[in-house]
TrEMBL record, chain A:
One of its GO terms (molecular function) is transcription cis-regulatory region binding. It holds the Pfam family Response_reg. This is DNA-binding response regulator. The lineage of its organism: Bacteria, Pseudomonadati, Pseudomonadota, Alphaproteobacteria, Acetobacterales. It comes from Falsiroseomonas bella. GO terms for cellular component: cytosol; protein-DNA complex. Keywords: DNA-binding, Phosphoprotein, Transcription, Transcription regulation, Two-component regulatory system.
UniProtKB/TrEMBL annotation, chain B:
GO terms for cellular component: plasma membrane. It is an enzyme of class 2 (transferase). It comes from Falsiroseomonas bella. The keyword Transmembrane applies. It catalyses: ATP + protein L-histidine = ADP + protein N-phospho-L-histidine. Its main location: membrane. Residues 239-449 form the Histidine kinase domain. The keyword Iron does not apply. This is histidine kinase.
Length: 225, 451
């Protein structure tokens, strides 16, 4: 993917660029808000990552300017620790995702991957299918290899979230945000518990489990793409 | 600065001087008018007496003619104490026919009342001239000294009274200025002491419950809030130093001793992973601290301004997620949620508050945890664990406060502090009570209720 990273802190910018390049992406760095704004508007990108606080126009200003000029490139806003309360503000300004610094690189990577794959127009099919798992969204019925699987509403939401993002690494915080709308990590291991429940319910004799654990990163449903 | 120059510049003194000037002006007007009225009244009385005498003399003229009048005038002039009432009869030629000498200065054709100067030292006369037939003219006059003296006495009395009033106004003003200055000096002295760092200092109250006391009370409340905020900040600094130093020094030791070992890929990887985990804990603690500090420093959400949050749905969803976690841990979580409970508030923070309460109940409680949302709405989370002794309860809402028995278990000691901060934001205070056995935390959110 072609990724624009707008970040004024040299160490952080280099760290992000290096990691993303190693993952096979093309990365362009911008060190000021002005430079970032020109690059963001002037070229075509798959994903834009921008710091919130920047010299010159800040991240949210760039974001608003892009959205106002009809550019819908997915944007991930990075924010300093403790600015969590501003999350809503960022999302309101048109950010597609929000990540607080410092972050694990695997978290950033997973979120960028998810943004890059986001379909341009979200089509809402009635049936979600990954491998031999299928979910009927209207009747809220789940089957694995034709066998019905009984799920609680919260497990249903978790599976739906995963089915909509097949082959992507889903981190714990992405699941907490996406499934339970929690933008913090509670000390109770909600994600682990629910994933393991879901795994048990989806398990079938002689078949490999559909949900894989990606060490140090998260979970993945279906073949990694 | 010494007292006098400061006093001279004082608002109170200026007010006193203005008051004195106003008193002076009003006195001058009032007294002047009074003096004029009194003088006029005195003169009217004198004129009436002169007129009465003149009428008597005119009767003599009518009965006895010029000769009788002349005789009567002569008689009166001699009998009467000179200087009180003077009578003169003038011939048509203007020559004095009979009567007192001091009236010589009266004009020849005097008709009606007039004030006439005299040749002697007794002062002016009040004279009435009446024309008689055949060209004769009768002049009746009286000394004005009595009138003038009375007016003079009256004027000096009035002036003295006015002066006294002005003097009183000045003295009273100075006294007020002095008292005002004293009270304001006490206030600014206390404010300076606070500026110097004595945050416990408060403005003195006189006990009179007057406007000064009310102002001082308001300022004292402000100072108390300021002191609490500063105390909180100081506490955070101390807490951060105390509670982050532990994990950070452990991390440092771990990295240092690993560096001293020969390089081994597998061991290094394991060590770095453990180090990252430790660092993440520190960062999480740090984030929680910042969040609490932000919440505590900010104002409470204005009632009715914040968006409406469906608390029933929020609690139900979260309770369901935690039910699964509780079951996996071999515990039970019962949820009882009244429908359609709404509050004005911050949904993300309310979710975190409930999540912290449930985390806490699952970490420290017993077999059974219950979450209840009653109409009000009142949120309640209870467990059947060992609970918290009554004397410890107020302290567990503070940052980093941990019961001795939970020191070994994971947790930052910030969970309930954040609960308290979020509750405060919504105008509530978490109440800890005995669930017999166990701990019950009640948050009454009815203050943020949305219809």
């Amino acid at each position: 993917m072609r990724i624009l990273v707008i970040e004024d802190d040299a160490a952080t910018a280099d760290y992000i660029a290096k990691g993303l390049r190693e993952a096979g992406h093309v990365v362009q760095l911008a060190r000021t808000g002005k430079e970032g704004m020109m690059l963001a508007a002037g070229e075509s990108w798959d994903v834009i990552v921008t710091d919130r606080m920047l010299p010159g126009p800040d991240g949210l200003t760039i974001l608003r300017a892009l959205r106002a000029s009809g550019i819908s490139t997915p944007v991930l806003v990075l924010t300093a620790l403790g600015e969590v309360e501003r999350r809503v503000e960022g999302l309101d300004a048109g950010a597609d995702d929000y990540l607080a610094k410092p972050f694990a690189f695997s978290e950033l990577r997973a979120r960028i991957d998810a943004l890059g794959r986001r379909p341009a127009v979200s089509q809402d099919p009635v049936m979600l299918r990954v491998g031999d798992i299928e979910m009927d969204l209207l009747r809220r019925v789940v089957r694995r290899a034709g066998q019905p699987v009984e799920l609680l509403p919260t497990e249903m939401r978790l599976l739906e979230y995963m089915l909509r993002r097949p082959g992507q690494v889903l981190t714990k915080t992405m699941l907490l945000e996406g499934v339970w709308d929690l933008n913090f990590d509670p000390s109770t291991n909600l994600v682990e518990v629910h994933v393991s429940r879901l795994r048990r319910k989806l398990a079938q004799e002689g078949q490999p489990g559909p949900i894989q654990t990606v060490r140090g990163a998260g979970y993945i449903l279906g073949e990694r793409g | 600065m010494s007292f006098l120059p400061r006093l001279l510049r004082s608002f109170a003194l200026r007010t006193a001087l203005l008051t004195a000037a106003a008193v002076l002006g009003i006195s001058a007007l009032g007294l002047g008018f009074g003096w004029l009225r009194s003088s006029a009244a005195l003169q009217d009385a004198l004129d009436a007496e002169i007129r009465q005498q003149a009428d008597e003399l005119l009767r003599e003229w009518r009965f006895g003619g010029a000769a009788a009048l002349m005789l009567s005038v002569e008689l009166r002039t001699r009998e009467r104490a000179p200087g009180v009432l003077l009578v003169q009869l003038r011939a048509p030629s203007g020559a004095v026919f009979a009567g007192a000498a001091p009236l010589a200065a009266a004009p020849a054709g005097l008709q009606g009342f007039a004030t006439v100067a005299t040749t002697d030292a007794e002062g002016p006369l009040r004279a009435l001239g009446i024309a008689l037939p055949d060209g004769f003219r009768l002049i009746v006059a009286a000394r004005m000294r009595l009138v003038l003296d009375t007016a003079q006495t009256l004027a000096s009395t009035l002036l003295a009274a006015g002066g006294l009033a002005v003097l009183l106004a000045l003295v009273f003003g100075l006294l007020t200025a002095w008292r005002l200055e004293g009270r304001l000096r006490a206030v600014s002295g206390a404010a300076e002491a606070v500026m110097q760092g004595d945050m416990a200092r408060r403005l003195p109250l006189s006990g009179a419950a007057d406007e000064f006391d009310r102002l001082a009370g308001t300022v004292n409340a402000l100072l108390a809030r300021l002191e609490a905020v500063l105390e909180g900040m100081k506490q955070v600094t101390v807490d951060v130093a105390h509670d982050l130093r532990g994990p950070l020094s452990r991390l440092r030791q771990r990295l240092e001793s690993a560096l001293a070992q020969p390089r081994d890929a597998a061991a290094d990887a394991a060590l770095l992973e453990a180090a990252l985990e430790e660092l993440d804990t520190v960062l999480a603690t740090f984030a929680a601290l910042l969040r609490i500090a932000q919440l505590e420093a900010g104002p409470a959400l204005a009632s009715g301004q914040a968006p409406v949050v469906n608390l029933s749905a929020t609690v139900a969803t979260l309770a369901e997620a935690y039910q699964v976690a509780a079951e996996e841990a071999g515990r039970t979580l019962a949820a009882e949620v009244a429908p359609d409970q709404r509050v004005h508030g911050d949904q993300a923070l309310l979710r975190q508050m409930l999540s912290n309460l449930l985390d806490n109940a699952l970490a420290h409680g017993g077999e059974h945890v219950s979450v209840t949302l009653r109409p009000g709405p009142v949120l309640e989370v209870a467990d059947d664990g060992p609970g918290i002794p009554a004397e410890e309860r107020p302290r567990v809402l503070r940052r980093f406060y941990r019961l001795d028995r939970s020191r070994g278990t994971p947790g930052s000691g910030l969970g309930l502090a954040l609960v308290a901060a979020v509750a405060r934001l919504h105008g509530a205070v978490p109440v800890l009570s005995d669930a017999e056995p166990g701990l019950r935390v009640t948050v009454d959110l009815s203050g943020a209720r949305a219809s």
